[in-house]
Amino acid sequence: MPSHPGQGSSSGSTGSILNDILGFDDNDIIVNNLTTATGNPLATRQTYFKALESWEANIAASNYFLVVFDLPVIVTDTSMKQWGEQLSSSFPWGVDIAKKRLQDDPAYQRYVGCIFCTGASLPQETISVSYAGFNNRGFIKAPFIQDRQAYAQVQLEMYESNLSYLDFVLRPWMILCSHYGLTARENSLEKVTTDVYIIELSRAGYAASMGAAGGQDNGAPYNIKGLMPRKITILKDAFPGESPSKTVNFGQGEGITRSGVGFYYSRYQHILPYTTINQTQPTTSQIPARPSSKYPVGSSDASAAFTARAAARTASIEEANAKNASTRIGIGEVIRGTASIPGKVVKGGFNSLKNIFK
Description:
Layout lengths: L13 H9 L21 H9 L12 E5 L7 H6 L12 H9 L2 H4 L7 E4 L6 E6 L9 E7 L5 E6 L5 H16 L13 E10 L4 E2 L12 E2 L3 E16 L15 E7 L2 E5 L2 H7 L21 H22 L7 H6 L3 E2 L2 E2 L3 H5 L5
Antiparallel strand pairs: 1-6, 2-5, 3-4, 5-10, 6-9, 7-8, 9-10, 9-11, 12-13
Helix pairs in contact: 4-6
């Protein structure tokens, strides 16, 4: 029989969970009934920092990302002229030159993604919820799902460069989308949509190496581990649909001009690159515990616990350094699909991502 009003008896019920947490039974009433797996009182601060030692629970950095996409073949000066967008027969828009210098150069579009993109929003999900029931005193109406709302546009923030990527690449693309429309065409070269990949990155870890040059200029070792993908967002059949106006003036200073370009798309998906994560990041159980003399985990001898875990941690770091002595996971390698993982090579990269939905 439960010894407290409202205490449940079924496994996993609200009453039983509260009983386990608060200790409602007469012989279990204590001030703190929250303990660790070894029976020690729960050390909130220590537990939190221990969790941050694992890769999956660490805080993600929002400023590590890449945006990669191919420009439709149909975006050319010839297409703009055919649709009457060229006002002078002697002076084209300059789309072909801009594509050659800004879009086709891998230094601007592949090694670090589209360098002109300084920010990106991710797809938003919204469902409409309504309530059904009687308008009768204390009766509470029940919610039900009405519909899933249409996708809101994704904003890709672009900065204004001397050879304007906004006005000579993205704006003509948007204009041609309005002429061609989204009707399926037999000729794939007339397709005006593309797939956009937003690749969010994280630090892969730390592996020290002095390298052939003997370290950095200040004598510190290099971190030969770079960045790795942690989440990939694919926007299927995307195209620009909104390009804001810009203002030029004689204001003070020369700040960077950024404009948000609204992209529409038919579908999207978040992808977890679990293969890369499993190859490079240990699970929580594989991470040596940080020693604590106050709450030694699984041992009553604080000094012995400290020594054992310190040795395990040192061995783990040395093993990682040995495996990664000649490995450098860089942004370019991630995109090109040539990032070397200890003993393996990450295959695929951007070229294989493009074939996911084909």
